[in-house]
């Protein structure tokens, strides 16, 4: 089992895409303030 451990580690790293240095995310357009939108419905359902 030990001879296959390095091969397994290399295969897992190749599968996850760890093939280079990390790349920082691009800056998104961020709007300041709070924005709330949507719907809400409240009710009670029951049967006898």
Question: Can you walk me through this structure?
Answer:
The structure is a single chain. The chain has 48 residues and is mainly alpha-helical. The protein starts with a helix and ends in a 32-residue tail after the last helix. One of its GO terms (molecular function) is lyase activity. Keywords: Lyase. It comes from Paragemmobacter amnigenus.
Structural class by SSE content? mainly alpha
Total beta-strand segments: 0
Order of helices and strands: H
Q: State the shape.
A: flat
Characterize the biggest β-sheet: none
Number of helices: 1
Helix content: 25-40%
Span between termini = 64 Å
Averaging pLDDT over every residue, what do you get?
77
Classify the beta-strand content into a percent band: under 5%
Low-pLDDT runs of 5+ residues are: none
Offer a few descriptive terms.
single chain; 48 residues; mainly alpha; 1 helix; 25% helix; Argininosuccinate lyase; lyase activity
SSE blueprint and pairings:
Elements: H1 5-16
Structure summarized in a few sentences:
With 48 residues, the protein is mostly helical. Helices cover 25% and strands 0% of the residues.
